[in-house]
Design goal:
Distance between the termini of chain A: 28 Å
Order of helices and strands of chain B: HHHHHHHHHHH
Number of strands of chain A: 2
Largest sheet of chain B: none
CATH architecture of the largest domain in chain B: Orthogonal Bundle
Number of domains of chain B: 2
CATH class of the largest domain in chain B: Mainly Alpha
Structural class of chain B: mainly alpha
Strand content of chain B: under 5%
Largest sheet of chain A: 2 strands, antiparallel
Number of strands of chain B: 0
Shape of chain B: globular
CATH superfamily of the largest domain in chain B: MetI-like
Helix content of chain B: over 70%
Helix content of chain A: over 70%
Oligomer: heterodimer
Radius of gyration of chain A: 25 Å
Strand content of chain A: under 5%
Strand order of the largest sheet of chain A: 1-2
CATH class of chain A: Mainly Alpha
Number of helices of chain A: 14
């Protein structure tokens, strides 16, 4: 009983000391001023979110006033800038999906292997070489990846597949895969390292090889965080803009072909912005229609990803 | 027994090979860039404006635009980011609201950069009437990197030992005094590392600047924050999207300049982390 209250008292002290002092009867005006300034700065983050949601909501509402939301989501023709106008967003969605699927097909297996190597096998010197390399790879601007796709990946692929067009979904997907590889591998590395060592040691003491420990214990134990990593990486690949604009072209189509030129949702927004678009015009509004869809998808993915990540962290 | 052992060795080798492959990708990228960009990379490349002839093309306008953007973004993002992190770590009461604030910041970090571009276009360019100026560009970039700065600054502030704060309070210091003159300086190296890494992300951002309306082809240097501007990555995009092979090589030269700036930033961050940081986060 005695020790119980002591523990409770110790926990009380864990509150910020400044906060305790602020609750006194008399307060220094400088403290109040500082707290006010800091909380004002903090409110900017809330303001940003609200502005994004309100702005996109408002413009998308105006857009859907003009084009029915069913035609937009289910239409298979995207031709908003030339007569006769068609506002079916599915071709852009197909383009984005192609890039996401290919990039995840590359980044996920590679990322899991790299993370397995870093967390289970690599000695310290190797780890301290591979990790910075991956960090540099993550810090390279996306426009550089676009250039790489256009001038290196596409010519190489064209030797393999002569039918490949200059702008194509494959090279864009490959470089986006390389781009998100560091993110996937570091999230997976965190996930593997978070597995309780007791579990692994139990496996080893039963005579399992390290491969069996990895397959039978580490992978299942970190399944939730792996799923979270996949979701966050998909969201990142969806929002990727410059690499796909440079390498994948500007031809929205529904052919599901990696060899052909496509257009993603992000690339369309860039295409419109490069032209001279008056505010409130149709082209301007289509931008926000597409942006609303993009924001909606990535928002759901991010919320889900962070929630799953947090769920296992606790 | 033998088969299990073989599987284990095989798995180890596959993992190692894939890791080496991932690091080799970076080398392939760099070698390709150097081979492409070497030809046009000389001192006149840094001092000339964009041109229709590849041999005379230079990145003066882009370089200055990027420097302007950097300076403006840093002066806005640094105080805002640090203030938010200080509030969240030192003042915010623990509870639902604070949790919500942190989830919100994590979400903002995941919003695609192109959405920030649309935000900047509607708010800074149109609503506030700042036009396609450096102001619009740098404010957009500030909002974009703010979540990154906040999260890293929070880590740095959290790693300052509690005993330091208690010692100051014991000497009779006021909360504002402790936070601004004890906690902030102690966390500064960690904060700076985060800010520099966030800025190096801002340097490479292209999409939001395209949306906000920076131009790809410019033949003058901006002299005030309300001028039109271009930036290095935009200039690179402009060159890379042209059909002529010579311009692709010019783009590679521009990329080499951009990457060396990024490398300098990263080295500075590493140096600060190793030399000045007393409380690693």
């Amino acid at each position: 009983m005695e020790s119980g209250t002591k523990a409770a008292r110790l926990e009380l002290v864990e509150e910020p000391v400044g906060e305790l002092l602020l609750r006194r009867q008399w307060v220094n005006y400088k403290d109040v001023l500082l707290k006010l300034c800091l909380s004002l700065a903090t409110s900017l983050t809330v303001l940003t979110t609200c502005t994004i949601v309100l702005l996109i909501g408002k413009e998308a509402f105006a857009f859907f006033h003009m084009v029915s939301i069913v035609d937009f989501l289910l239409g298979t023709q995207w031709q908003p800038l030339i007569e006769p106008q068609q506002y079916g967003v599915l071709p852009l969605v197909v383009g984005s999906t192609l890039v996401v699927v290919l990039s995840m097909g590359i980044a996920l297996p590679l990322g899991v292997f790299v993370a397995a190597y870093l967390s289970e096998y690599a000695s310290f010197p190797i780890r301290s070489v591979v990790k910075p390399f991956l960090e540099i790879l993550a810090g390279i601007p996306t426009v550089v990846y676009g250039y790489f796709a256009l001038t290196f990946v596409t010519p190489q692929l064209q030797q393999l597949f002569p039918a490949m067009e200059v702008f194509n979904a494959a090279s864009a997907g490959i470089v986006v895969g390389i781009m998100i590889l560091p993110m996937v591998s570091s999230l997976c590395d965190d996930a593997f390292c978070a597995v309780a060592p007791e579990l692994k040691e139990a496996g080893y003491s039963l005579g399992a090889t390290s491969y069996e420990v990895f397959r039978g214990i580490v992978l299942p134990a970190s399944a939730f965080r792996l799923a979270a990593a996949v979701i966050l990486a998909v969201s990142r690949a969806l929002g990727e803009t410059m690499a796909v604009t440079l390498a994948a072209g500007a031809t929205p189509n529904m052919e599901w072909s990696f060899l052909k030129s496509i257009q993603t949702m992000t690339a369309y927004i860039v295409e419109v912005s490069l032209g001279d678009t008056p505010a409130g015009g149709v082209a301007y509004l289509t931008c926000y229609g597409v942006a609303a869809l993009l924001f909606g998808i990535t928002f759901v993915l991010n919320v889900l990803g962070y929630r799953w990540m947090r769920r296992t962290a606790e | 027994m033998k088969r299990r052992w073989c599987k284990d060795v095989l798995f180890r080798w596959v993992c190692g090979a894939v890791s080496m492959f991932a690091t080799a990708l970076l080398l392939v990228l760099l070698v390709h860039l150097c081979r492409q960009g070497w030809e046009y990379l000389d001192s006149s490349f840094l001092t000339q404006f964009a041109s229709r002839r590849p041999a005379q093309a230079g990145i003066k306008a882009g370089l200055w635009g990027t420097l302007w953007l950097l300076a403006l973004t840093a002066t806005m993002a640094f105080p805002l980011g640090v203030a938010t992190a200080l509030y969240l770590e030192e003042y915010a009461p623990q509870g639902r609201l604070t949790r919500l604030l942190e989830v919100n910041i994590a979400n903002l970090a995941g919003v695609p950069s192109i959405i920030y571009g649309l935000l900047g276009l509607a708010i800074f360019v149109r609503l506030l009437g700042l036009e396609r100026s450096l102001w619009s560009g740098s404010m957009t970039l500030t909002l974009l990197i703010l979540p990154v700065i906040i999260v890293s600054a929070q880590g740095a502030i959290r790693s300052v030992p509690r005993s330091l704060r208690e010692a100051s309070y014991a000497l009779g210091a006021q909360p504002w005094h402790v936070n601004l003159l004890v906690v902030f300086p102690a966390a500064l190296p960690g904060i700076l590392t985060g800010v520099i890494l966030a800025l190096s992300r801002a340097i490479g951002e292209t999409a939001p600047l395209v949306i906000v309306g920076a131009v790809g082809y410019m033949r003058f240097v901006p002299t005030s924050p309300s001028d039109d501007f271009t930036a290095l990555p935009l200039q690179i995009y402009d060159w890379a999207s042209r059909p002529q092979v010579e311009f692709h090589q010019v783009a590679a030269s521009g990329i080499l300049v951009l990457l060396s700036i990024l490398l300098m930033f990263n080295l500075t961050a590493v140096w600060i982390r190793h030399r000045l940081q007393r409380y690693p986060s």
